[in-house]
């Protein structure tokens, strides 16, 4: 086992702490730039943020993105990206790039496709859809050596184990990479989660062995919804010389309780986390952000802001009618917005809100042929809204007012 800490390609300095929770601010720095944390990392699955161009990304002042190892390995291929000089050059993006390990696809292309079980328990809409179309076969086959994936593009077979994941991520040239892991769904039994965790822990050690030392490597805590497995995983992963720690996997058995289960899980493991940066994989609703920040999470990645924008859901603050029940969003295609000449959100200073009303967005969202305009405007608003919220959170932690801000939003 590797116990000696290497010189890290990442530096993380904690700059302020909240007195009444584990919330903290910090500066995370790599060769490509720095971000102030807590930070919500926009997702650029296939090395682009859907609906945005380079200028939009610059105007939004996005300093860090997360790209997907599985998808880029298949298309356009990690070797092609390596030959282009790595992801930063390939995307023409000057900022920090995270990549995931490919392990999430064991869930998204496996059980989630087959039965509708996702990270946060059973997704009922997806389940209904699956029941209607009959269950689909899984796209993955898991063994102790790694995972055999079927390509979503042409059904060809691809094997990714810890060594392969490290090689692909090295070719991608991202700043921060993730150890290869099995992301399990919430419907699995204790004995399955235990076996999966043994695999993930072995792969964590192999990821340390095979990763490119010029890249910062995060170990991933798994263990499903089981307390002793989560603690075991947290102890093991934090005992290894990773540059940062990530929390992944499934959290709860039922969709309704999954949020509380997630908070509970972070509470169980928080005492095993140290001053290394902590990343929460794939979480990003507004109430989750507050709950995770108060439990010491430094960075998040989430497709929500961009995905829900395209699904006609736009963020609004409390002052514009947002609350926990409506998830701080409005569905812009509802009839009531047809003649609504107000801004999407009263407090938002994004370029969309500067020039367009709710009625404008309603009209664009309803248009069948020219939906690119809508998607771009909506994505800009949602990303700006979230980046701004995280800025408010950072300011509040520094000013000793985080609890007040959290209470204000989650009342
Ligand atoms: Zn806006």
| Unreliable stretches covering 5 or more consecutive residues | none
Q: What is the gyration radius calculated from CA atoms?
A: 21 Å
Number of alpha- plus pi-helical segments = 16
Task: Give the N-terminus to C-terminus distance in angstroms.
Answer: 47 Å
CATH class membership of the largest domain: Alpha Beta
CATH superfamily of the largest domain: Queuine tRNA-ribosyltransferase-like
Number of domains: 2
CATH topology of the largest domain: TIM Barrel
Shape: globular
In percent terms, what proportion of residues is strand? Answer: 15-25%
- The level of helicity is 40-55%
Briefly say what this structure is:
The chain is α/β, with parallel strands linked by helices. The protein binds zinc ion.
Report on this model:
- With about 400 residues, the chain is an alpha/beta fold.
- The protein folds into two domains: about 10-100 and about 170-180 and about 190-300, Queuine tRNA-ribosyltransferase-like (TIM Barrel, Alpha-Beta Barrel), CATH 3.20.20.105; about 310-405, no CATH class.
- Helices cover about 40% and strands about 20% of the residues.
- It is built from 16 helices and 18 strands.
- It has helices spanning about 55-60, 70-75, 80-85, 85-90, 105-115, 125-130, 160-170, 190-210, 225-240, 260-270, 285-295, 305-310, 350-355, 360-365, 370-400, 400-410; strands at about 10-15, 25-30, 35, 40, 65, 95-100, 115-120, 120, 140, 145-150, 155-160, 175-180, 215-220, 245, 280, 300, 315, 330.
- The strands form six sheets. A six-stranded parallel beta sheet has the order 4-16-15-14-13-12. A three-stranded antiparallel beta sheet has the order 1-2-3.
- Strand 7 and strand 8 form a beta hairpin.
- Helix 7 packs across helix 8, helix 12 runs antiparallel to helix 15 (about 370-400) and helix 14 packs across helix 15 (about 370-400).
- The longest helix is centred in the C-terminal third of the chain and has 28 residues, at about 370-400.
- The radius of gyration is 21 Å and the shape is globular.
- The N and C termini lie far apart (about 45 Å).
- Zinc ion binds near residues 344, 345, 352, 353 and 381.
- Zinc ion (ZN) binds near residues 348, 350, 352, 384 and 385.
